[in-house]
Design a protein that fits this description.
By secondary structure, this protein is an alpha/beta fold. The protein has 4 domains: 98 residues, Fumarate Reductase Iron-sulfur Protein, Chain B, domain 2 (Orthogonal Bundle); 46 residues, no CATH class; 140 residues, no CATH class; 117 residues, Rossmann fold (3-Layer(aba) Sandwich). It is built from 24 helices and 9 strands. Strand 8, helix 22 and strand 9 form a beta-alpha-beta unit. It starts with 12 loop residues before the first helix and ends with a helix. The structure holds iron/sulfur cluster (2 copies).
Length: 444
Amino acid sequence: MQTSFTPAQLTDPDIESVNGILRSCVHCGFCTATCPTYVLLGDELDSPRGRIYQMKSFIEEDRVPTDEEVKHIDRCLSCLSCMTTCPPSVHYMHLVDHGRAHIARTYHRPLLDRLTRTFIGFVLPRPGLFRWALIGGSLVRPIRNLMPNRLKTMLNLLPASVPSPGWVDRKETYPASNAAISEQSSCEPAKARVALLSGCAQQVLGPHVNEATVRLLNRLGVEVVVTNPKGCCGALVHHMGQTEASHNQAKAMIDAWIVEADDKGLDAVIINASGCGTTVKDYGYMFRNDPDYSEKAARVAALTQDITEFLTTLDMSEVSAPEDLSVTYHSACSMQHGQQIKAAPLDLLLMAGFAVKEPAESHLCCGSAGTYNMLQPEIASQLKKRKIANLRMTQPDIIATGNIGCMMQLSSLKGEGAVVPVVHTVELLDWAAGGPRPLGMSTG
Ligand code: SF4
Ligand code: SF4
C-alpha cells in the first residue's frame, strides 16, 4: 500500500512503525474472509482491509477521526484472526494499537462512553476494587432491568457468585513438591523456577485457575514465585488506547520480574490467560523506544510462555485423565492468533487421555475479547451464540479453554440445555495429575 507521510512525520518512531506496517499490505483482501465482524456485518469498513484504510487516512492526515471511523475501529475485536490469514504478515495488532492510541488522544467520545471506559480501565486492573465492584453489582443485579442499557449489559455479564479470594493472590514462593508424581522424588531439587502472572481480573473471577497452575507445576517439580500479586500486565487498558496507564502497569510487572530473575533466577514467566500472554510477549515492541526499559522489556518478553507451552517441556508421562471424558477445546483468539499456539493445549489434553475435539469455525472469536463484550454487547452476543452453537454440535462433556475471558463468555452453556462445564485447560491437567476435580465440573 502506498503511503504519503511527510519526512517530518516519519521522525516519530510510532509513525515510522505505522508506515512500515501499511506499506506491507498488498490489499489482497484474504483477511476479510476470516474477520468475525466482516463475516457478521458484511461491510468492508468492518473488515481488516477497510479498517487499515481508515486508520491510514486519519493517522496520515494527522486529524481527528470521524464518528464513522471510530465506530468501525471500535467494532474491531483485536482477535487478530486477520494476522493468521494475511499472506505478507501485516502486523495488524501493532497498527490497531497505534490507531486506538490516536483515537484516545484526539477524539472526544460521548460522555457515557467516556465514563464507561474510565470505569472499566480503572476498576478491572485493580483486583481489590474489582472484587468490591462485583459484590456491589451482584447486589443490584436483581433490578438491572430498571437500569440504563450500558449498565444492564455489564450487570448481565457478572458471574452468578463472586468466588472467595484464592491462595495465589499474595507475594509467595511455592516450592516444587513432586508429591503426586512420585513420593520418592519429593526431595529432588526443583527442575525449574518460574514466575506466575496471577492476573488482575482472573484472580478475582477464577482464582481456582491460578491454584491449579501452581499445584500442577509444583507436582511436576517446578518452583513457582508470585512477585507482584496485585499487578496487571497492562493488556486491558492497552487495547483501549490508554498508552500511559498500560505502560505504567507493564513497567511495574517488568521491574518485579527483573528483580526476581537477577536475584534467584527465572527460567520462564508463566501466563495462564492468553490475552495477557499476547501483550507480555509484545513488551519488547511496546518499550522499544524507551531507553530505561527497552532491554528489560525484551528480556521479560523472551522469558514469557503460555502455561501450555511450558508444560510441553516437562515430563507429563504420569499424568492420566481420571475419567473417560470428551473435551471440546475452544482456542482463544489470543492463543491461536495472538501467540500462534495451536497444538500444545490439544496435545497435552490428548496425552493426558481425554478425547479431544475441536468445533467448526474454531478460528472465529467467541465475542469476549477483553472488554469488548462490555463495550460492543450486540456483536459480542451474536458471536457468542454462534460459538456456543458450534461447541454444542460436538456434544462435549466439557469445554476447555486457556483464557479467563472466554471462560466467562461461554459459561452461559450452563444455562442453555444440558449443563456443559467450561474449565481452563490447566484445571483438567491438574486433575489428571492428582489435583482436585475442576471447580466448574463439581458445581455443574
Ligand atoms: S490479507 Fe494482509 S495484505 Fe491482504 S488486505 Fe488483508 S492485511 Fe492487507
Ligand atoms: S482483529 Fe479480528 S475483528 Fe479486528 S479486523 Fe482483524 S479479524 Fe477483524
